[in-house]
Write a structure and sequence with these properties.
340 residues, mainly alpha, Peroxidase, domain 2, two-stranded antiparallel sheet, 48% helix, globular, binds protoporphyrin IX containing FE
Length: 340
Protein backbone atom coordinates (compact mmCIF):
# COMPACT_ATOMS: atom_id res chain seq x y z
CA UNK A 1 0.00 0.00 0.00
CA UNK A 2 2.73 2.45 1.07
CA UNK A 3 4.67 1.61 -2.06
CA UNK A 4 1.62 2.34 -4.22
CA UNK A 5 1.07 5.71 -2.50
CA UNK A 6 4.74 6.56 -2.91
CA UNK A 7 4.67 5.54 -6.57
CA UNK A 8 1.59 7.68 -7.19
CA UNK A 9 3.22 10.63 -5.37
CA UNK A 10 6.36 10.28 -7.49
CA UNK A 11 4.26 10.08 -10.65
CA UNK A 12 2.36 13.24 -9.68
CA UNK A 13 5.58 15.09 -8.93
CA UNK A 14 7.11 13.97 -12.22
CA UNK A 15 4.00 15.08 -14.09
CA UNK A 16 4.23 18.52 -12.47
CA UNK A 17 7.90 18.76 -13.35
CA UNK A 18 7.28 17.74 -16.94
CA UNK A 19 4.40 20.20 -17.16
CA UNK A 20 6.74 22.99 -16.11
CA UNK A 21 9.24 22.12 -18.79
CA UNK A 22 7.11 21.07 -21.68
CA UNK A 23 4.40 23.71 -21.46
CA UNK A 24 4.32 25.31 -24.88
CA UNK A 25 4.02 29.06 -24.85
CA UNK A 26 1.44 30.38 -27.24
CA UNK A 27 -0.46 33.52 -28.15
CA UNK A 28 -4.04 33.45 -26.83
CA UNK A 29 -3.19 30.74 -24.29
CA UNK A 30 -6.10 31.78 -22.02
CA UNK A 31 -8.68 32.25 -24.79
CA UNK A 32 -10.73 29.33 -23.50
CA UNK A 33 -9.70 29.08 -19.84
CA UNK A 34 -9.89 32.78 -18.93
CA UNK A 35 -11.41 34.75 -21.75
CA UNK A 36 -10.66 38.46 -21.64
CA UNK A 37 -7.79 38.18 -19.16
CA UNK A 38 -5.47 40.27 -21.32
CA UNK A 39 -8.05 43.09 -21.35
CA UNK A 40 -8.23 42.99 -17.56
CA UNK A 41 -4.45 43.37 -17.33
CA UNK A 42 -4.42 46.15 -19.91
CA UNK A 43 -7.17 48.08 -18.14
CA UNK A 44 -5.22 48.10 -14.89
CA UNK A 45 -1.91 49.00 -16.56
CA UNK A 46 -3.52 51.84 -18.51
CA UNK A 47 -5.14 53.21 -15.36
CA UNK A 48 -1.85 53.03 -13.44
CA UNK A 49 0.14 54.72 -16.20
CA UNK A 50 -2.45 57.45 -16.53
CA UNK A 51 -2.01 58.16 -12.82
CA UNK A 52 1.79 57.91 -12.95
CA UNK A 53 3.92 56.94 -15.95
CA UNK A 54 6.66 55.72 -13.59
CA UNK A 55 4.71 52.51 -13.03
CA UNK A 56 5.11 51.79 -16.76
CA UNK A 57 8.89 52.11 -16.55
CA UNK A 58 8.90 49.84 -13.51
CA UNK A 59 7.06 47.12 -15.46
CA UNK A 60 9.44 47.38 -18.43
CA UNK A 61 12.36 46.83 -16.02
CA UNK A 62 10.59 43.94 -14.32
CA UNK A 63 10.35 41.82 -17.47
CA UNK A 64 14.15 41.95 -17.71
CA UNK A 65 14.79 41.33 -14.02
CA UNK A 66 12.35 38.43 -13.88
CA UNK A 67 13.31 36.68 -17.10
CA UNK A 68 17.12 36.93 -16.73
CA UNK A 69 16.96 35.08 -13.39
CA UNK A 70 15.52 31.51 -13.47
CA UNK A 71 13.58 32.42 -16.63
CA UNK A 72 10.21 34.20 -16.72
CA UNK A 73 8.73 32.55 -13.64
CA UNK A 74 7.74 35.53 -11.46
CA UNK A 75 10.53 34.58 -9.01
CA UNK A 76 11.29 38.30 -8.74
CA UNK A 77 7.85 38.87 -7.22
CA UNK A 78 8.32 36.60 -4.20
CA UNK A 79 8.50 38.38 -0.86
CA UNK A 80 11.05 37.39 1.77
CA UNK A 81 9.65 35.00 4.39
CA UNK A 82 11.14 33.50 7.58
CA UNK A 83 11.89 30.31 5.57
CA UNK A 84 13.42 32.25 2.70
CA UNK A 85 14.50 35.72 3.85
CA UNK A 86 16.78 36.38 0.84
CA UNK A 87 14.47 36.38 -2.17
CA UNK A 88 15.54 38.08 -5.40
CA UNK A 89 13.88 41.37 -4.54
CA UNK A 90 16.25 41.79 -1.57
CA UNK A 91 19.32 41.71 -3.84
CA UNK A 92 21.24 45.02 -4.15
CA UNK A 93 21.12 44.67 -7.95
CA UNK A 94 17.31 44.90 -7.71
CA UNK A 95 17.42 48.35 -6.09
CA UNK A 96 14.40 50.43 -7.03
CA UNK A 97 12.23 47.64 -8.47
CA UNK A 98 8.60 48.70 -8.26
CA UNK A 99 5.04 48.02 -9.48
CA UNK A 100 4.59 45.09 -7.10
CA UNK A 101 1.36 46.56 -5.71
CA UNK A 102 0.03 47.09 -9.20
CA UNK A 103 0.71 43.45 -10.06
CA UNK A 104 -1.05 42.39 -6.82
CA UNK A 105 -4.13 44.38 -7.87
CA UNK A 106 -4.10 42.83 -11.33
CA UNK A 107 -3.66 39.31 -9.94
CA UNK A 108 -6.54 39.83 -7.54
CA UNK A 109 -8.84 41.03 -10.36
CA UNK A 110 -7.78 38.07 -12.51
CA UNK A 111 -8.35 35.60 -9.63
CA UNK A 112 -11.87 36.99 -9.17
CA UNK A 113 -12.55 36.26 -12.80
CA UNK A 114 -10.88 32.84 -13.14
CA UNK A 115 -9.46 31.44 -9.89
CA UNK A 116 -6.27 29.42 -10.10
CA UNK A 117 -5.87 29.66 -13.87
CA UNK A 118 -3.52 32.50 -14.81
CA UNK A 119 0.10 32.52 -13.63
CA UNK A 120 1.79 35.59 -12.16
CA UNK A 121 4.59 35.00 -14.67
CA UNK A 122 2.14 35.50 -17.56
CA UNK A 123 0.49 38.50 -15.88
CA UNK A 124 3.92 40.12 -15.57
CA UNK A 125 4.61 39.61 -19.29
CA UNK A 126 1.17 40.93 -20.32
CA UNK A 127 1.61 43.96 -18.06
CA UNK A 128 5.14 44.73 -19.30
CA UNK A 129 3.94 44.39 -22.90
CA UNK A 130 1.08 46.81 -22.27
CA UNK A 131 3.36 49.24 -20.43
CA UNK A 132 5.87 49.29 -23.30
CA UNK A 133 3.06 49.84 -25.75
CA UNK A 134 1.40 52.62 -23.77
CA UNK A 135 4.67 54.44 -23.02
CA UNK A 136 5.53 54.38 -26.73
CA UNK A 137 2.08 55.36 -28.01
CA UNK A 138 1.73 51.91 -29.52
CA UNK A 139 5.01 51.96 -31.45
CA UNK A 140 6.40 49.10 -29.36
CA UNK A 141 3.90 46.29 -29.71
CA UNK A 142 3.82 42.52 -29.88
CA UNK A 143 1.55 39.57 -29.21
CA UNK A 144 2.43 38.13 -25.83
CA UNK A 145 3.09 34.42 -25.56
CA UNK A 146 1.62 32.78 -22.45
CA UNK A 147 1.43 29.43 -20.68
CA UNK A 148 4.19 29.92 -18.11
CA UNK A 149 4.11 28.54 -14.60
CA UNK A 150 5.19 30.38 -11.47
CA UNK A 151 8.46 29.22 -9.96
CA UNK A 152 8.91 28.04 -6.40
CA UNK A 153 12.44 29.37 -5.82
CA UNK A 154 13.87 32.85 -5.51
CA UNK A 155 17.37 33.65 -4.30
CA UNK A 156 19.08 37.04 -4.05
CA UNK A 157 22.42 35.42 -4.88
CA UNK A 158 21.10 34.25 -8.26
CA UNK A 159 19.83 37.75 -9.12
CA UNK A 160 23.22 39.14 -8.13
CA UNK A 161 24.96 36.59 -10.35
CA UNK A 162 22.73 36.75 -13.42
CA UNK A 163 21.84 40.44 -13.77
CA UNK A 164 24.33 42.94 -15.22
CA UNK A 165 25.67 45.69 -12.97
CA UNK A 166 25.81 49.31 -14.03
CA UNK A 167 29.58 49.32 -13.37
CA UNK A 168 30.21 46.52 -15.92
CA UNK A 169 32.66 47.00 -18.79
CA UNK A 170 31.47 46.29 -22.33
CA UNK A 171 33.22 42.89 -22.20
CA UNK A 172 31.31 42.00 -19.03
CA UNK A 173 28.01 43.20 -20.50
CA UNK A 174 28.53 41.16 -23.68
CA UNK A 175 29.47 38.09 -21.65
CA UNK A 176 26.45 38.55 -19.35
CA UNK A 177 24.04 38.72 -22.28
CA UNK A 178 25.79 35.87 -24.09
CA UNK A 179 25.15 33.57 -21.12
CA UNK A 180 21.44 33.98 -21.84
CA UNK A 181 21.99 33.62 -25.59
CA UNK A 182 21.56 37.32 -26.33
CA UNK A 183 23.76 39.05 -28.93
CA UNK A 184 25.67 42.33 -28.85
CA UNK A 185 22.93 43.81 -31.03
CA UNK A 186 20.26 42.72 -28.55
CA UNK A 187 22.31 44.19 -25.69
CA UNK A 188 22.22 47.53 -27.50
CA UNK A 189 18.53 47.21 -28.40
CA UNK A 190 17.41 46.32 -24.88
CA UNK A 191 19.55 49.01 -23.25
CA UNK A 192 17.32 51.49 -25.09
CA UNK A 193 14.75 50.84 -22.33
CA UNK A 194 16.75 53.42 -20.37
CA UNK A 195 14.84 56.04 -22.35
CA UNK A 196 12.37 55.85 -19.47
CA UNK A 197 12.38 55.67 -15.70
CA UNK A 198 14.81 56.64 -13.02
CA UNK A 199 17.98 55.50 -11.31
CA UNK A 200 19.43 55.98 -7.86
CA UNK A 201 22.57 58.07 -7.53
CA UNK A 202 24.30 55.03 -6.00
CA UNK A 203 23.82 53.30 -9.37
CA UNK A 204 25.64 56.05 -11.26
CA UNK A 205 28.28 57.01 -8.69
CA UNK A 206 31.16 56.27 -11.09
CA UNK A 207 29.72 58.71 -13.63
CA UNK A 208 30.14 61.64 -11.24
CA UNK A 209 33.92 61.40 -11.55
CA UNK A 210 34.17 60.03 -15.11
CA UNK A 211 36.42 61.98 -17.52
CA UNK A 212 35.05 64.36 -20.17
CA UNK A 213 35.43 61.87 -23.01
CA UNK A 214 32.93 59.60 -21.20
CA UNK A 215 30.34 62.10 -19.99
CA UNK A 216 29.50 65.65 -21.02
CA UNK A 217 31.00 67.72 -18.18
CA UNK A 218 27.90 69.92 -17.95
CA UNK A 219 25.71 66.83 -17.52
CA UNK A 220 28.15 65.41 -14.98
CA UNK A 221 27.78 68.67 -13.05
CA UNK A 222 23.99 68.46 -13.25
CA UNK A 223 24.02 64.91 -11.88
CA UNK A 224 26.54 65.78 -9.16
CA UNK A 225 24.37 68.68 -8.02
CA UNK A 226 21.27 66.50 -7.80
CA UNK A 227 23.09 63.63 -6.14
CA UNK A 228 24.46 65.92 -3.43
CA UNK A 229 20.92 66.62 -2.26
CA UNK A 230 20.35 63.53 -0.10
CA UNK A 231 21.68 60.12 0.92
CA UNK A 232 20.69 58.43 -2.35
CA UNK A 233 18.31 60.51 -4.49
CA UNK A 234 16.89 59.40 -7.82
CA UNK A 235 17.39 61.11 -11.17
CA UNK A 236 15.62 60.57 -14.50
CA UNK A 237 17.41 58.08 -16.76
CA UNK A 238 16.69 60.36 -19.71
CA UNK A 239 17.95 63.95 -19.63
CA UNK A 240 14.88 64.87 -21.68
CA UNK A 241 12.83 64.18 -18.54
CA UNK A 242 14.97 66.46 -16.35
CA UNK A 243 13.42 69.51 -14.75
CA UNK A 244 13.83 72.58 -16.90
CA UNK A 245 15.55 74.60 -14.17
CA UNK A 246 18.41 72.15 -13.77
CA UNK A 247 18.91 71.89 -17.54
CA UNK A 248 18.72 75.67 -18.03
CA UNK A 249 21.49 76.10 -15.47
CA UNK A 250 23.74 73.28 -16.70
CA UNK A 251 23.08 72.72 -20.44
CA UNK A 252 20.83 75.50 -21.78
CA UNK A 253 21.33 74.23 -25.35
CA UNK A 254 19.35 71.13 -24.39
CA UNK A 255 16.24 73.00 -23.25
CA UNK A 256 14.36 72.66 -26.59
CA UNK A 257 14.81 68.87 -26.41
CA UNK A 258 13.02 68.46 -23.07
CA UNK A 259 9.85 66.41 -23.42
CA UNK A 260 6.39 67.53 -22.43
CA UNK A 261 5.34 63.94 -21.81
CA UNK A 262 7.94 62.30 -19.60
CA UNK A 263 8.84 58.62 -19.71
CA UNK A 264 8.16 58.28 -23.41
CA UNK A 265 9.65 55.08 -24.80
CA UNK A 266 11.52 55.95 -27.99
CA UNK A 267 15.05 55.90 -29.45
CA UNK A 268 16.14 59.11 -27.69
CA UNK A 269 18.47 56.99 -25.53
CA UNK A 270 20.76 56.51 -28.54
CA UNK A 271 20.89 60.23 -29.33
CA UNK A 272 21.67 60.98 -25.69
CA UNK A 273 24.31 58.27 -25.65
CA UNK A 274 26.14 59.67 -28.69
CA UNK A 275 26.08 63.08 -26.96
CA UNK A 276 27.63 61.46 -23.81
CA UNK A 277 24.50 62.28 -21.81
CA UNK A 278 23.47 58.95 -20.28
CA UNK A 279 23.26 57.99 -16.62
CA UNK A 280 24.97 54.63 -16.24
CA UNK A 281 28.51 53.53 -16.98
CA UNK A 282 26.98 50.49 -18.71
CA UNK A 283 25.17 52.83 -21.13
CA UNK A 284 28.32 54.70 -22.07
CA UNK A 285 30.26 51.42 -22.40
CA UNK A 286 28.21 50.62 -25.54
CA UNK A 287 30.27 53.24 -27.38
CA UNK A 288 33.54 51.50 -26.56
CA UNK A 289 33.15 48.45 -28.80
CA UNK A 290 32.90 48.62 -32.59
CA UNK A 291 29.83 46.50 -33.20
CA UNK A 292 27.88 47.90 -30.26
CA UNK A 293 28.78 51.45 -31.26
CA UNK A 294 27.59 50.75 -34.80
CA UNK A 295 24.21 49.67 -33.45
CA UNK A 296 23.96 52.78 -31.26
CA UNK A 297 24.34 54.85 -34.45
CA UNK A 298 21.89 52.60 -36.32
CA UNK A 299 19.12 53.03 -33.73
CA UNK A 300 19.80 56.75 -33.29
CA UNK A 301 19.22 57.07 -37.05
CA UNK A 302 16.15 54.84 -37.25
CA UNK A 303 13.56 55.06 -34.50
CA UNK A 304 11.06 52.83 -36.30
CA UNK A 305 13.63 50.07 -36.60
CA UNK A 306 14.30 50.33 -32.86
CA UNK A 307 10.57 50.10 -32.05
CA UNK A 308 10.37 46.86 -34.05
CA UNK A 309 13.62 45.35 -32.82
CA UNK A 310 12.87 46.28 -29.21
CA UNK A 311 9.49 44.55 -29.52
CA UNK A 312 11.18 41.42 -30.92
CA UNK A 313 13.80 41.45 -28.18
CA UNK A 314 11.13 41.66 -25.48
CA UNK A 315 9.45 38.61 -27.02
CA UNK A 316 12.80 36.80 -26.93
CA UNK A 317 13.26 37.81 -23.27
CA UNK A 318 9.75 36.53 -22.51
CA UNK A 319 10.71 33.07 -23.80
CA UNK A 320 13.55 32.48 -21.34
CA UNK A 321 12.65 29.19 -19.64
CA UNK A 322 12.82 28.07 -16.04
CA UNK A 323 15.89 25.99 -15.14
CA UNK A 324 15.75 22.46 -16.53
CA UNK A 325 13.68 20.18 -14.31
CA UNK A 326 12.06 22.96 -12.23
CA UNK A 327 8.56 22.56 -10.93
CA UNK A 328 5.97 25.25 -11.30
CA UNK A 329 2.49 26.18 -10.13
CA UNK A 330 -0.17 28.83 -10.54
CA UNK A 331 0.33 30.99 -7.47
CA UNK A 332 -2.68 32.27 -5.59
CA UNK A 333 -0.80 35.41 -4.63
CA UNK A 334 2.17 36.67 -6.62
CA UNK A 335 4.22 37.43 -3.49
CA UNK A 336 4.10 33.90 -2.06
CA UNK A 337 4.35 30.31 -3.24
CA UNK A 338 1.25 28.22 -2.52
CA UNK A 339 1.26 25.94 0.51
CA UNK A 340 2.01 22.33 -0.27
C1 LIG B 1 22.35 46.17 -20.15
C2 LIG B 1 22.46 46.06 -18.87
C3 LIG B 1 21.64 46.86 -17.91
C4 LIG B 1 22.10 47.48 -16.80
C5 LIG B 1 23.53 47.46 -16.29
C6 LIG B 1 20.99 48.15 -16.18
C7 LIG B 1 21.06 48.88 -15.02
C8 LIG B 1 20.03 49.63 -14.50
C9 LIG B 1 20.11 50.41 -13.30
C10 LIG B 1 21.34 50.50 -12.40
C11 LIG B 1 18.93 51.03 -13.12
C12 LIG B 1 18.54 51.99 -11.99
C13 LIG B 1 18.21 51.22 -10.72
C14 LIG B 1 18.11 52.19 -9.57
O1 LIG B 1 19.14 52.72 -9.18
O2 LIG B 1 16.99 52.41 -9.06
C15 LIG B 1 18.08 50.66 -14.23
C16 LIG B 1 16.82 51.14 -14.42
C17 LIG B 1 15.99 50.71 -15.44
N1 LIG B 1 16.28 49.72 -16.34
FE1 LIG B 1 18.07 48.85 -16.66
N2 LIG B 1 19.88 47.93 -16.92
C18 LIG B 1 20.21 47.15 -18.00
C19 LIG B 1 19.35 46.67 -18.95
C20 LIG B 1 18.00 46.90 -18.96
C21 LIG B 1 17.06 46.20 -19.79
C22 LIG B 1 17.42 45.07 -20.72
C23 LIG B 1 15.84 46.74 -19.55
C24 LIG B 1 14.50 46.37 -20.10
C25 LIG B 1 14.32 45.81 -21.27
C26 LIG B 1 16.02 47.78 -18.57
C27 LIG B 1 15.04 48.61 -18.13
C28 LIG B 1 15.19 49.57 -17.15
C29 LIG B 1 14.17 50.52 -16.79
C30 LIG B 1 12.83 50.72 -17.50
C31 LIG B 1 14.67 51.23 -15.70
C32 LIG B 1 13.93 52.33 -14.93
C33 LIG B 1 13.05 51.64 -13.90
C34 LIG B 1 12.16 52.56 -13.11
O3 LIG B 1 12.17 53.78 -13.29
O4 LIG B 1 11.40 52.04 -12.25
N3 LIG B 1 17.34 47.82 -18.21
N4 LIG B 1 18.78 49.79 -15.04
Amino acid sequence: MMRTVAAVAVAVLLAAAVAAEASELKVGYYDKSCRGVENVVKWHVARAIKANRKSGAALVRLIFHDCFVRGCDASVLLDPTPENPDTEKTAPINIGLAAFDLLDDIKSAVEDRCPGVVSCADILIFAARDAASLLSNGHVHFDALAGRLDGMHSHAAEAQQDLPDSTFTIAELIQNFKRKNFTIEELVILSGAHAVGVGHCSSLRARLTAPADQILPAYRGLLAGKCAKGPDPIVPNNIRDEDAGAVAAAIPGFLPKLRKVKDFLDNSYYHNNLARIVTFNSDWQLLTEKEARGHVHEYADNGTLWDEDFSDSLVKLSKLPMPHGSKGEIRKMCRFVNHH
